[in-house]
Write a sequence for this structure.
């Protein structure tokens, strides 16, 4: 267990957590719900904390159940005892802590008209463990290079396969530069704080020396803002989908900026059925489409398509 995660748990649980043996990079998320067992998701399996014996077991019988006091303490630790300072982030439903780990929250919300004003009585937490996996995209990079820049590129996969992880590593490599391509200025519009995982404006993940991050901003607004303010050579965005996103991408491309982004789809056929993406594919705005899939052993594999949706490798 990583120290930054252990330290957001109540004091009486920390010793048990410190003694847990979890395979490196195997822990994906931890679910905490008032009155329910704490669930550790490890390689698509659910494990439960047995506090008395200080270990995880698959059997949920006698598993430790989180209390309301546990949740109250965790919120204090997550917000560094300053809940009001993080109120804007919390009403978006999550906070990012040191190390880039993202804490999702749910409970009772206070509405102001049609907008969420604040969140109170937080009863559910989801700790998503940050994993950088540096080098995972190195074999993809040669397929993206076009002259002295890159093709406009989309990473495609179902949820949970690793689009954001591959996008982040692609950004890092392109920002650092390589023998094939000199480092590029990259502007990251990190609407959900998942790419750079900024904590108080500082990226917790390595996104390279030539990357600038706009954290917590709508993609559609952020792309145009960064075009005006930071003069990027490449814009990076996660989870494209809305009409506004696609319009902003078109404007960026017309301004001579390259795009790398991600989109949810199980395959190329499903991608081509997405109403706002379909027209962009018809106009061949993306020169490379990278389909990510998870093999039977859990290893990721990729397939490269060109702008005509023809398989390259």
């Amino acid at each position: 267990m990583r120290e930054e995660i252990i330290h957001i748990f109540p004091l009486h649980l920390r010793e048990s957590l410190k003694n847990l043996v979890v395979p490196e990079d195997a822990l994906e998320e931890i679910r905490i719900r008032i009155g329910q067992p704490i669930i550790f998701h490890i390689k698509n399996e659910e494990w439960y904390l047995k506090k008395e014996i200080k270990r995880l077991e698959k059997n949920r019988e006698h598993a430790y159940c989180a209390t309301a006091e546990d949740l109250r303490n965790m919120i204090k630790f997550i917000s560094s005892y300053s809940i009001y300072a993080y109120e804007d982030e919390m009403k978006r439903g999550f906070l990012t802590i040191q190390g880039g780990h993202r804490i999702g929250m749910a409970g009772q919300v206070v509405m102001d008209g049609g907008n969420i004003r604040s969140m109170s009585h937080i009863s559910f937490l989801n700790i998503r463990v940050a994993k950088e996996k540096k080098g995972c995209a190195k074999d993809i990079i040669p397929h993206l290079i076009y002259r002295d820049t890159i093709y406009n590129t989309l990473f495609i996969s179902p949820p949970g396969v690793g689009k954001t992880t591959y996008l982040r590593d692609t950004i890092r490599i392109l920002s650092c530069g390589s023998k094939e391509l000199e480092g590029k200025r990259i502007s990251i519009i990190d609407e959900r704080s998942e790419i750079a995982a900024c904590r108080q404006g500082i990226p917790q993940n390595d996104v390279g020396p030539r990357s600038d991050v706009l954290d917590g901003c709508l993609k559609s607004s952020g792309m145009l803002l960064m075009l005006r303010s930071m003069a990027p050579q490449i814009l990076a965005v996660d989870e494209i989908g809305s009409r506004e996103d696609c319009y902003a991408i078109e404007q960026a491309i017309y301004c001579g900026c390259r795009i790398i982004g991600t989109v949810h789809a199980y395959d190329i056929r499903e991608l081509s059925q997405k109403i706002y993406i379909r027209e962009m594919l018809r106009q061949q705005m993306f020169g490379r489409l990278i389909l990510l899939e998870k093999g039977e052993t859990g290893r990721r594999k990729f397939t490269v398509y060109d702008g005509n949706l023809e398989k390259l490798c």
Notes: The first strand starts at residue 27 and ends at 33. The chain is about 25% helix and 30% strand.
